[in-house]
Amino acid sequence: MQGATPLGGPLEGQWEYDDWLARQCSLAASPAEPWRRRLAPLLRQRIFLAAETFRDEFDEEELALAAQAQRAFEPHIHEAKARAAA
Description:
The chain is mainly α and 86 residues long. Helices cover 62% and strands 0% of the residues. It has helices at 14-24, 34-49, 60-85.
């Protein structure tokens, strides 16, 4: 496996490995969601180019992808809260 450049994608083959690992752990039957694959390089680029302020400024595409991520995690958050309350 080769390393990634600062602005490049994940390590070569990383998404395939992540998908394989999730299937082995029975965490997911399908590959990583498309929004994850689009959001990851955007965030790496933001961190590389603006290490001091990357948490403070977002463009429209990143906000849309973050909203998708929030919707994807909502069922898991509710499940965890229900288990904690029980």
